[in-house]
Write a structure and sequence with these properties.
Largest sheet: 6 strands, parallel
Helix content: 40-55%
Strand content: 15-25%
Shape: globular
Structural class: alpha/beta
Strand order of the largest sheet: 3-2-1-4-5-6
Number of helices: 20
Radius of gyration: 21 Å
Length: 445
């Protein structure tokens, strides 16, 4: 089975490769094709993968190319993990937004809109190429903003593109752990959009254990989201939000913490990864050891500003091991081998949430088999969540419309309608600021 990874020079590719090496079942991936526009990054990651595979019998054959059509032709699965504009683009997204006093995070608020406007045209081009060169392939989208990009690609690939994110999985795992349940034996009632969802129940042997968690201040204070949001607020919601909702519920505190930080997250990762890629050019250095050290630092500092603002402390050791690669491999196995499973994924709504149309991509538990991912029926969201989901989905639709039309006015509308951008005047300045620093937004007239 052939797997193509777009963004194959990306820092997290070794996580996927490590999961593939651990897969010993029949029908596993036998060939991995890495594609990236940066040949130097491809060389670095290829070195890491070679060290990972040393001494592992039956390791997949790995090749690399900067020719996207060559990479896609003959693929059975395509992992799309691109970053249009690189980490420099992410740092610019953050700086432009913070200068206007609004959030610049890469998937939330102004930063997420800017990233989406840059990424959607490229993602659409990829979807069209897949439809032409590998029409039977399944596309698993890692690219952020994951829900928005998956929806853009689905207009050309239908249900053969599925978006993934490890945030809901990590949240469910943490809740199960504090309740003394095994994550694999718990049903997680989670629904929303990517980076905008809520756990409303966690059922073990048919019993919902979430009320027990919400009623116990000690349990609520024992895991990351409990400390991040506070026990009183979680009890008020009657649910546990995805960690990214901290940007909405505590927006002023988050923006203030980001403005006070020595560097933005994008700037930190840009400098950190530049050292990593430069370091791999020394043949005397173990590329794998260098990658492991860099990854540990990256994971430990994830959402550090939010935790500081909330007084939530350091991340727990169990949350430093990633997880999106495990979701991707489980999804791929379920489709390729008809190993039926349940995963939280980004898929077309198909009537799951009545407040949204059928083509809107949502994040929800899905039953997965050889025919793809099928969203599970869920109870309606409470009004407070429905309002936010509908508002953010409306913004996503404006981003898609702006990317399709090249209309500056539509881009301004997307920024202005977002709940975390509080002024049409600010929205206009954001569009001016982003088009000035991003060549990839030159299409906006």
């Amino acid at each position: 089975m052939r797997l193509t990874i777009l963004g194959g020079g990306g820092f997290r590719v070794p996580l996927v490769h490590g999961a593939l090496l651990a897969d010993r079942a029949p029908g596993r991936v036998t060939r991995v094709v890495l594609h990236d526009v940066d040949a130097g990054r491809l060389r670095a990651v290829t070195r890491v993968l070679a060290e990972q595979a040393a001494g592992v019998p039956g390791a997949p054959e790995v090749s690399a190319t900067t020719d996207i059509d060559e990479a896609l032709t003959g693929a059975d699965f395509v992992f799309s993990a691109i970053r249009v504009g690189g980490l420099e683009g992410r740092a610019n997204d953050e700086r432009v937004a913070l200068a206007e006093g609004v959030l610049g995070q890469e998937t939330v608020g102004a930063g997420g809109i800017a990233y989406g406007l840059r990424t959607v045209p490229v993602a659409v081009d990829i979807a069209r190429r897949v439809a032409r060169l590998a029409p039977d392939a399944w596309v698993i989208n890692f690219t952020n903003p994951a829900g928005l990009v998956t929806e853009a690609m689905s207009r050309h690939l239908g249900d053969r593109v599925i978006g993934i994110c490890d945030s809901p999985v990590g949240l469910g795992r943490r809740i199960a752990r504090v309740l003394g349940a095994r994550p694999g034996e718990a049903w997680i009632d989670y629904v929303g959009l990517n980076h905008l969802g809520w756990v409303r129940g966690l059922r073990v042997a048919g019993r919902d254990e979430l009320p027990r968690l919400l009623a116990d201040p000690a349990l609520l204070g024992s895991f990351e989201e409990g400390r991040l949001f506070g026990a009183d607020w979680l009890r008020s919601l009657g649910a546990v939000p995805n960690e990214y909702l901290h940007y909405y519920y505590f927006n002023r505190e988050a923006v203030h913490a980001y403005q006070r930080a020595e560097r933005t997250r994008g700037a930190f990762l840009h400098d950190q990864q530049a050292r990593f890629y430069a370091g791999t050019e020394d043949p005397a250095v173990s590329a794998l050891d260098l990658w492991e050290r860099t990854r540990a630092e990256r994971e430990a500092t994830y959402m550090a500003e939010n935790r500081e603002a909330a007084g939530a402390g350091e991340r727990e050791a169990d949350d430093l091991s990633g997880g999106y690669e495990k979701v991707a491999l489980a999804l791929m196995r379920a489709i390729a081998r008809d190993e039926r499973t349940t995963l939280i994924l980004n898929v077309r709504n198909r009537g799951t949430l009545a407040a949204l149309d059928g083509d809107a991509v949502i994040e929800v538990p899905c039953l997965v088999d050889a025919n793809g991912a099928h969203p599970v029926s869920v109870d309606p969201l409470p009004d407070y969540a429905t309002g936010l989901v509908c508002a953010v989905k409306a913004v996503e639709r404006e981003v898609l419309a702006a990317a399709r039309s090249g209309s500056r006015a539509t881009a301004v509308k997307a920024f202005a309608l977002h709940p975390l951008v509080d002024s049409v005047t600010v929205a206009r300045r954001l569009v001016d600021g982003y088009t000035a620093v991003h060549p990839g937004l030159a299409y906006l007239g």
